[in-house]
Predict the structure.
Amino acid sequence: MRAEVKEICKALHLAYIADRFEEVMFETKEQFLRDVLALELSCRQQAKQARLIKKAKFRELKWLKDYEWSDHIHWPTTTSKKELCDLRFLERKQNVLLLGSPGTGKTHLATALGIQACQQGHEVRFFRVADLVAVLEEALKNGTLGRLKRSIDACELLILDELGYVPFQKQGSELLFHIIADCYERKSVIVTSNLEFGQWNRVFGDNRLTAALVDRLVHHALIRSCCTLMKHISALTMSCGPHGRKSAAKNKCRRSAIMPTYRCLARSTSTMAKRCFIKRPLPMPQRSWIS
């Protein structure tokens, strides 16, 4: 009998019922049929979520329930934590820009939002920016750039992690720009960066391209700025050691040196957060070398 059930389920493309129908309690025929089909549906959804998470290629698995929502995190007044966690930005094709110094949870939040999107059935791609540029350059060299772009284009959420750690050559900058530009108003992009917008030209090496890129990202964007003065000051204070006032005095000087930097970052990102909607993006550079 079990073998026959498996054959019938296989013919009907019911992958899970044959192995798990005995788990379902029987009260009435209608209830049993409903619960068996619900079990099949639930198993399919779990399998799809696992498949999407694997396909996204996250470096680590992070969850929103484990994220620390610090008071130093600043969001535009037009959004809220609930709207972010509910992925309303995906429905609106909005971008999410996570800016702040290292160690402020940018990658954790980006990954957790990506996993949440996978659990809701959305296709996601996760890249470290330097890795994506290397893959794009290799694909251009091998003549497979079109296939790679179609693969990226199939996703509904593109996550670009660690923008700003590694500068690019002109070709790599243009390739990355066109990937982001192709997402404009068609899908959401999450970007994490340790640099304020005014410093992005150090990464791309071209002021005009950088300005066009920032325009496309900031238009329809939610910008999170994170000022971590207290975190860094605490770390410096802990490092004073047993030598008392001399070490404390040295660290006080170090604190006074770093504080203007973080104040500047907070001011810059706060200003950009107020300008989330730019009327018209700058024109795109010519795609002379892209098929």
Summary: The chain is about 55% helix and 10% strand. The longest strand covers residues 157-163. Residues 57-228 form a domain with the Rossmann fold fold (CATH 3.40.50.300). Residues 12 and 94 are 40 Å apart (CA to CA).
